[in-house]
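re: ur question from earlier - yeah i can do the single chain one, its not a big deal. heres the input i used so u can compare w yours
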Amino acid sequence: MNNEKQWDLAEILHELDRNYHHLETFGVRSLGLFGSYARGTANTNSDMDFLVDLELPSFNHYMDLKFWLEDTFSHAIDLVLIDTLKARLQSVILSEVVYAKRLSPLPRGHLGGDQAH
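and the output i got, formated as tokens:
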């Protein structure tokens, strides 16, 4: 994937918030960023790691969302369904995930990280 633009955390979260209504069409309940982009350590070879909670998880919604993220950010995307997190990774991912304001799991869930964007 061609990484033409180097995105930062604030830009990614803003883009997700800006497209909130479109993301709802994929059944997105919450969508957050974790990994190197959330930590601010991404480089030109980094992929973007997203954690998603889908209202009705389906192959089509998952793939449509993944393709939309790849097209929007022009980056390779790792998209992880929250319900499929392995126990050994769950605490690490949930502690660093940063959600877009309009795509946060609150009030029912964990905000993650030290910040609510």
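The chain is about 40% helix and 20% strand. not sure if urs matches, ping me
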